[in-house]
Amino acid sequence: MTDTAPPRRHPVRGHLRARARLAVPVVAGLALAGCGPSPVDMVEHPVTTTPSRMAGERLQRAAVPEESCAPAPAAPEIDGAGDRAVDSAGPGPDRVEVPRSPERILALGAGAVDVACALGLQDLVVGTSGLPRDADAYLPRPLVELPTLDPASEDVAGDARALRPDLIVLADTGDLDPAVVYALGDVAPTVVYDADVLNWADATEAVADTYGRPRAGGELLLDVIALAESTAERTTPSDTRVSLLSVEGDEATVQRPDTLGSLMLEAVGAQRPPGQRTRDGEGLPPLPESPLAGDELDGDVIFVVVGGDPGAEERARAAFADDRFQDLGAVGARRIFVVDRAVWEGAGPVAARAVLDDISDSINGVAPDG
Predict the structure, then answer these.
(1) Each residue of 102-152: pLDDT tens digit?
(2) For the residues of 272-314, what is the DSSP string, one character each?
(3) End-to-end CA distance of the chain
(4) C-alpha pair distances (Å), 352 with each of 130, 343, 355
C-alpha cells in the first residue's frame, strides 16, 4: 500500500528566509552541542580554535562531538502501513516510495548525515559519503568512521548493496549522474536532495521528511532560529565589524559568502566590513556612506576558517606570519579566532548550531594568552 502525505504548511517560511534562509516550520528542543573555541598559541599572537587537529597539544576541547547528536531518536511521525511517497530533487524520479520509518539508512551527503545526527537517528546510518576531512570536530566518531561510498565509483550499487540499506538519501551537488540514481534505486528507494549550502534549510526539511520525521525536521530549524536570535540578543553582533577569512594556499583571504558560516553571521545580524557585506550568501557592494578604508581583511574581530587537508596547519602558520596579516588591527588586539572548516563550511542543523556557538563564545572576546 502506498499513500501520499498531505501538503504541509510553512507558517514561518517568510521569517526564515529573512533569517539567511533558515527555512521552515515547528520546534522541539534537541540538545545539540556546538564546537566552542579553545586556546592555542599559533604564531606571535595567540589565537583560538574549535576542536581541530590544527590545534595540536594545546587544544582544550570546549565541546564534545560525541554529544552533538540527539541522545534519543525522534519518534516516527507517519501513521499507516506500507510505503509512502516523497519528493526527490535532481535527476531520477520526481517521487519515490520510501519506508514510513527506515531502519537502515545510507546517507550519501554531509547534509543527510547531519540531519540524521540531529534527529537522533545516527544508529540507523549504515554508511556515508561527502563528509569533510575533519568531520569528527563536530560529529561523533562512530558516525564519522562508518563505511564510506563514492557515488562516482563504477560499482557504487554493489558497494551499497553490501550495506543492505532500506533507504538511500543522495546529495545532488550539481553534477549528479542520473545513471547513479537509477543504479542505487535498484538497491533501495533512493531520494535525491539539493546539496547547495544556500538551500541547506530546505534540504534539512526534505531529508527529515524522507526519514519519516517531517515535523521534527521543522522543529530543528526553528531551534536554530531561536539560537540565532538569542545569540544576537546576548552578543549584539550588529555593533561589531566581523571579518570572516579563510586560509587559501599560504595566505588569508575573505571567505566566500556562500558558506554556512557567512549565512549564520547574516542570521545573527552581524555587521561586516564594507568589503565583506553579504545577503542570502551573495556578496554586496559597500554602501555609499561606508567607503572601503584600510585592509579589507580587517575587522573588530576576525574569524579565520582553517582545515580540510593534512597541510592546513603549516599553511595557516605561514598565513598568520605574513606581514599583511600581522598588521591587521584585530591581530594586535588579540581578537583573532580560528574555526574549523568542517563546521563553518558544513551543511545542516548540527553544523549551524556549532557555528552559532562559536560566534556566541568569541565575538566579544579576546584571545587568551598562549
Answers:
(1) 999 999 999 999 999 999 999 999 999 999 988 999 999 999 999 999 999
(2) --GGG-EETTEE-PPPTTS---S-TT--SEEEEEE-SSTTHHH
(3) 63
(4) 17, 8, 5
